[in-house]
Design goal:
By secondary structure, the protein is mainly beta. The chain has 1 helix and 9 strands. The protein is elongated, with a radius of gyration of 24 Å.
């Protein structure tokens, strides 16, 4: 009985490979998965185009019966420029969505001292579960100073 179990295990373990691939890697899934859905908001002064690092960014997300409201953190974010020869370190507000759903509906509010508050429209992010998918919702907001005139 032990010999039969051992032979069955050996057959199962060695029978999964292919004669066509001498490396034995055929059939092995090398996908590292996909990233969790993340919201990134870049905040700039609309008149000077300077980054605003003292803003408060909050989002509300809903999906499959779940609702979450969170304040986002201001963290470094490296962007590669178009010719990909140098990196530009910028700061923006980012958070992983705390709603576990395939379809996420969200909106966000950006406020900073000395600026008019920005309230976004409702947005939607559909989770992409393909191999290597980034699942990133990136928004750029330009706040208007309360002391100036903006279009």
């Amino acid at each position: 009985m032990k010999k039969l179990a051992l032979l069955t295990c050996l057959y199962v373990l060695t029978g999964c490979g292919s004669d066509n691939d001498p490396s034995g890697k055929e059939g092995i899934n090398t996908c590292a998965g996909y990233s969790s859905p993340k919201l990134v908001v870049e905040v700039f002064d609309s008149s000077t185009n300077a980054e605003i690092s003292n803003a408060v960014v909050e989002y509300t997300a809903t999906g499959e019966g779940m609702v979450s409201t969170q304040e986002m953190i201001n963290a470094p974010y490296t962007q590669v420029n178009q010719n990909e020869t140098e990196n530009n370190l910028t700061y923006n507000y980012q958070s992983y969505f705390s709603v576990n759903a395939i379809q996420i509906e969200y909106s966000f509010t950006v406020s900073a001292t000395g600026y008019h508050t920005h309230v976004s429209n409702q947005h939607s992010l559909e989770l992409d579960s393909s191999c290597g998918a980034e699942n990133l919702a990136l928004h750029t907001v330009r706040l208007c100073p309360t002391s100036g005139t903006c279009l």
